[in-house]
Amino acid sequence: MHNDIQEILYTEEQIQDKIRELGEKISSEYAGRNPLVICVLKGAYMFMADLTKRITIPIEVDFMAISSYGQSTKSSGVVKILKDLDVPVEGRDVIIAEDIVDSGLTLSYLIDVLERRNAKSVSVVALFDKPAGRKVDLQADYIGFTLPDAFVVGYGLDYAEKYRNLPYIGILKPEVYA
Ligand SMILES: O=P(O)(O)OC[C@H]1O[C@H](OP(=O)(O)OP(=O)(O)O)[C@H](O)[C@@H]1O
Ligand code: HPA
Ligand SMILES: [Mg+2]
Question: What PANTHER family does the database record attribute to this sequence (predicted)?
Answer without folding.
Answer: HYPOXANTHINE PHOSPHORIBOSYLTRANSFERASE, HYPOXANTHINE-GUANINE PHOSPHORIBOSYLTRANSFERASE
